[in-house]
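User: Show me a protein chain along with its predicted structure.
Assistant: Here is one chain, sequence first, then C-alpha cells.
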Amino acid sequence: MTRADSHTHIFPPEQVSAREALCGRDPTFAELYRDPKAKLATTDRLLSALDEAGIDRAVCAGFAFAAERDIEAQNDYLLEAASTAKGRIIALATVNPANPGWARAAEAALLAGARGFGELRPANQGWDPLGEAGQTLAEMALAHHAVLQWHVSEPVGHSYPGKRGGIEPAQLCELAARHAGLRMIGAHLGGGLPFFAQMPEVKETLASVYFDTAAASLLYDDECVPRLVDLVGAERVLFGSDYPLLSPRRQLERVNVLLRDDVARIVCGGNIDILFG
C-alpha cells in the first residue's frame, strides 16, 4: 500500500538561514515565520520525517512569496528535490500572478517537472482568483493536466498566523463551477466548503476538487476527518500533515485510527496515486 502526505513544505537552506531578511521584505512570510520557533524544513529533514512515519512520498508545495527572486529560488529547490528524491517528492511550484511575466515563469516550472501550483494565497499576494489572473492560471493548469492547491481557511473561529490570505470557500466553489475538470485541492478541509456538498448541485460542481486534512488536529474535533469522508466521499479526501508544522507520523496515526482500513488506504495514499500518477 502506497502511503502519501499531500501537504508538506520545504525551503532551500539559503532561505532557512535568511529567515530574518525574508521577514523584512515579505509580510506573509513574516506572519508565519517571524517567530524563531516556527519550523522551516529542508529536503533531508522531510525525507527523514517520511521515513519515520513509513510514508512513501509527499507533495511539497511552494510558499506564496511576493518577490520573483524568492519564488525562483524556492521553485529551483523544489524541482531539484523532486528530481533527486527518486519519486518520493511531488513538487507544486509557487507563482505570483501579481508579478509581470508570471505566466512565463509558471509555464517554465511545469515544463521543468512541477506537477501543479500551490499553496496558493491570492489575497496575500494581491490577485483575484476569479479575475483575469485566475482565469489564466486555471487554463494553464487544464492545458498541462496540472493541479492547483489552494490555502482555504475557515471563515469563523479563532485567529492564528497565516489563517487569512488564501481563497474563500465560496470562491473555490465558483472557480470549480467555471472550470469543469480542473483538478484542485482545497487545503485544510476546504475551509468548511465540503459541508455544502450535501447540496446536489454543489457536489456536482466539486467533482474534481479534493480536500486535504492538513492541520485538522489544530482546528477541529476528532470526528472531522470521518465527517469529511461522509460529505465528499473517500475518493476526494487526501491525508496531509502540513509538515513541518505537524509531524507526519503523528498525523498519520491519528487518521488511521479514525478511518476504516479500506478507507484509510484510499485517503492516505491511493488518491495521490490517482491524482498524480
